[in-house]
Amino acid sequence: MPSQLQGLDSNMKGRLRTGLAVLGTLLLPLPLLGLCALMLMKTLQETSRVQEPVVIPMLHPVEREGTLTYGRECQNDSDCDPRLRCFFSMVLQSSYCTDSRCMTDKECPEGFSCQTYTADDERALLKACSRVGDRKEGEECEVLTVESDSGCERGLLCQGWCGRPCTPGSPATCPEGFFCHASREGAVCQPTCEGRACPDGQRCIDVGGKRSVCAQVHGTDCQAVACGPGQDCSARTYPWAPGEVWMQCSQTCELEGKPPCPEGTACAVHRCRPVCSPDGGAPCAERFECTSHPNQPAVCAPDVADQSPP
Fold it and tell me: Where does the chain cross the membrane (predicted)?
C-alpha cells in the first residue's frame, strides 16, 4: 500500500511539473505581447500627432515682408519661406506664398469673416478673410470669395455649402435636415434631404460627400436613369441659382487614354458636350444655352448667366 501511494505521489508530481512547464510556456509571450501593444499605441499616437493639422500663424507685417517670398507664386511649400505656405487662391486662380491673414473676424475688414482653408500641402491650415454674403444655411457657397452672391451669411462657414459649426457625434448641434460633417477645416453642418419630402417640382439630389439637396433638374436626370456605357453623370449646381441643378451624361475627353468624342458632341473642359448652332439650327435642351469659344465648336452649357454675379 505505501508503495502504491508513493507511485501515485510520483505521478502527481510529474503531472504538476508538466502543467507548470506548459503554463510557463503560455505565460512567457505575455511580456512580449505587452511590449508590442505599448509600441503600437505609441506609434498610433505619434501618427495622430503627425496628421493633426497645424494652423499657420499670422505674422506681424514687418516679419511678413521680411520673408522675401511673401506673395510670390509657388508650386509647393519648398518655394516659400518656412513660416509661409503655398496656397491656391480661387479668386486669383493661382498659388502664392502666404501666412494666415487673420485669426478671428476682428482682423478682417468690414463685410468679411475669418475662415479656415487647407494649404496646398493638404497638411497645414491657413486662415483668410472671405466675403460675408447672401447665401443662407444649406445653400451652396464658394470658399475665399469676394462676391456676396457666393459667400455665406455671417456666422456660417463655407465647406461647399453654408452651415453653422457643429460637434461631431452630437447630431443635436445641427438643425433638422442637416448632418455634422467633419473635415480638416473643422466640423460644419451640411444639408441632407435623405428621407425627407421635397417641394413640388423638385427631388432629392446627391451633390457629393453625403450631401443632398432638393432641386429642380434641368437636362437628363442621370441620377434617376443611368448613363450609357463610357459616360458619367454630371450634376452642376451654382451658388446664385439655389434649388436648381443641371445634369448631363457625358464622357471624359482630351486626356491620356480617353477616346475621341462621339458624333454630335465636342470636347469642352474635358467633357464631351452636345454640339449646337448659335443661330438656333441645332437647339439645346431647355435651360441650356449654346456657347462658343474662338476656334472651338459651339456646345450646350447650363443657362445660368443671367443669374450669375456681375
Answer: 20-41
